Task: inverse folding
């Protein structure tokens, strides 16, 4: 069984019942964590996290990532306290700044994202530490509140906070204030070098080193013994993101020309037909630049490349047969 650190990432491609089975299978095969997405308006992360936690015994269960805008800070702290009641010392709070146009479409103005995140992390951490908190900032206003545990475990909760950062200002702040960075997917390993520099700068501000910051990274993993099938699976995903979140693609060095070509074909939200029509514009090298896609050997080599560029634990997002992916990685990725 693998000694390499490995985690599983789930969005909404599987039913919750299938997700539970995959999580149990991952735990049995040496994976250390599952991260549940919460990004689009489709599946919240908290209900699946509770389901996964209740069906496992050692696996860490993380939000991958919730956002700092839609849950009141008191509720956010109470939610993670509750999850920790279910799976003591196995819960990770992954939190990010969300994205537009979705946020604005539901009436949220993501202004001053750095200040908003800093305040959220400070108040959340203090509440989970069991403190009585009064805090009047720009985004959070709380007076004389604490997690009011009458029945059950009192005292501080061990719920590490990981920020899902993409831009370098947020990355630097993550190094300063968070326990870890949940690094994004659909970026090239070269992007990681910039991210490591930013994390190091932030860590230094807080008297820490980058080694004090855990750095798991989301990775799209499309692996199959049929190489073409694996590449085409990832190509479809890349095409959607080229249309939906071009800032991610641009951060990885995808050319503006390709982004423009894709935007000629895709609207947002993109239809299935538009995605199919745009897929042929995306060459294999772009697919493999930003994803771990192809044969088992190619995919493991790509994971090692991200590790060599600062990632501490791959969070593998399975496209295609998830159990096959878990089987392929059960013996790790080291050569």
Result:
């Amino acid at each position: 069984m693998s000694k390499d650190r490995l985690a599983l990432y789930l969005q909404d491609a599987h039913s919750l019942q299938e997700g539970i089975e995959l999580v149990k299978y991952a735990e049995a095969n040496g994976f250390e964590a599952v991260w549940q997405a919460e990004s689009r308006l489709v599946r919240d992360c908290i209900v699946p996290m509770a389901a996964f936690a209740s069906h496992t015994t050692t696996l860490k269960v993380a939000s991958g990532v919730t956002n700092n805008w839609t849950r009141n800070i008191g509720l956010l702290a109470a939610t993670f306290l509750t999850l920790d009641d279910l799976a003591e010392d196995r819960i990770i709070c992954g939190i990010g700044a969300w994205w537009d146009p979705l946020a604005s479409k539901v009436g949220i103005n993501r202004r001053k994202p750095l200040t908003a995140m800093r305040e959220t992390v400070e108040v959340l951490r203090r509440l989970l530490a069991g403190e009585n908190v009064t805090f009047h900032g720009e985004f959070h206003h709380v007076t004389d509140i604490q997690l009011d545990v009458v029945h059950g475990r009192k005292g501080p909760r061990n719920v590490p906070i990981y920020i899902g950062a993409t831009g370098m200002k947020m990355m630097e702040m993550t190094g300063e204030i968070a326990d870890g960075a949940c690094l994004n997917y659909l970026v090239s390993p070269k992007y990681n070098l910039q991210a490591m520099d930013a994390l190091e700068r932030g860590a230094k501000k807080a008297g820490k080193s980058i080694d004090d910051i855990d750095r798991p990274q989301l990775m799209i993993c499309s692996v199959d013994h049929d190489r073409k099938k694996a590449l085409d699976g990832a190509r479809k995903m890349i095409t959607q993101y080229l249309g939906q979140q071009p800032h991610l693609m641009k951060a990885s060095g995808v050319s503006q020309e390709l982004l423009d070509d894709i935007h000629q074909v895709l609207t947002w939200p993109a239809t299935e037909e538009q995605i199919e029509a745009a897929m042929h514009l995306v060459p294999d090298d772009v697919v493999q630049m930003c994803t771990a896609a192809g044969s088992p050997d190619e995919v493991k080599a790509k994971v090692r490349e991200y590790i060599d560029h600062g990632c501490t634990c791959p969070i593998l997002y399975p496209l295609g047969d998830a159990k096959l992916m878990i089987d392929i990685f059960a013996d790790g990725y080291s050569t």
In short: The mean pLDDT is 94. The chain has two domains: 7-225+295-329, 226-294.
